Amino acid sequence: MTQSYQSFGVIGAGAWGTALAQNLAVAGRDVTLWAFEKDTVDSINKAHENTAFLPGIALSPSITATQDLTALVQCDALLSVAPAQHTRSILSTLSNEKALTGKPVILCSKGIEISTREFMSDVLSETLPQVVPVVLSGPSFAIDVAKGLPTAVTLACKDEVMGAALVQAVAAPTFRPYLATDVLGAEIGGAVKNVLAIACGMVLGMGLGRSAHAAIIARGFAEMRRLGKKLGCDPETLTGLCGLGDLVLTCSSEQSRNMSCGFALGKGESLEKILAARTSVTEGVASAPALKKMAESLDVDMPISIAVADILAGDLNIQSALVELLAREHKTEVL
Ligand SMILES: NC(=O)c1ccc[n+]([C@@H]2O[C@H](COP(=O)([O-])OP(=O)(O)OC[C@H]3O[C@@H](n4cnc5c(N)ncnc54)[C@H](O)[C@@H]3O)[C@@H](O)[C@H]2O)c1
Ligand SMILES: O=P(O)(O)OC[C@H](O)CO
Q: Is this complex's ipTM strictly greater than 0.95?
């Protein structure tokens, strides 16, 4: 008999974890939401609002928030939605939990761990080898999902039967997951588009025009696909919601933390000042140096991503990066 998934534990009560918890509650699931901060737990349980990370959204009273991660292990499935740089330490606390054996953990964060240069599925397989990795990724702002605006995402699971059951469980009237089997391919797009969105923001912040912006999206997409090819992913995966779809959304919206960070850099603001003014995570800033090292060690041509990493590190200014990118040797357009 096919397993059905009724209870979900969501790890991370930032904007995205909270929006996904709300979506699951709308879909009729039982949701336990783990938050890092006690204030966030209290705000969700008492006022049914996440005032710190998703203010103004009335959450379903059926969502239970907790600071006790072990309260989630009896759930049918987990969602991992903490920022990428905190994911390992959080998941490690559950490493001895036998109750998780064979259960799906749906990775919803988008990033690369700096210290190891690993994607979240690698971090998961090292911290919780007893679970089944699944990826949910695509063009989806937390506030849009929380408001019930139409959203479509990729849900990737190697086990198609489990994946199909998860699609049924997480789908809601305005939230449409599409099933895929290429787990690593599905997570590459989300991590790389964050870095490329910083580049797009810089271009628009400097007033370089929409033509340059479109060129960065298209050539950035070539970098994303080159990396996917090198890592053995299905080339089709990145043409979907988790790749091209998310790249277009993030690179085109000032609402994006990554794009707006690049935009402010393009206007001449310092990275320190931009980040100091934020409580929310800008994943591309952390992923960029890891992506640069990954590209160099795998010998994948990713000049835009590497330029972003160098600019963020203070090793290159935006103007010089532009000159260098345009002065590169002419080449054929295909990968
Ligand atoms: N917000 C979105 O629209 C959106 C959409 C899709 C994917 N994502 C991804 O989801 C992930 C989470 O982003 P978000 O927007 O929900 O976060 P957020 O910016 O809204 O909130 C920051 C989160 O970091 C947590 N945090 C801060 N310090 C911590 C620590 N020391 N240990 C553990 N947790 C700590 C906070 O509790 C909070 O949950 C990111 O990888 C992001 O790329 C976000
Ligand atoms: O605000 P960003 O740049 O973290 O992007 C949020 C989502 O990943 C968009 O799909």
A: yes
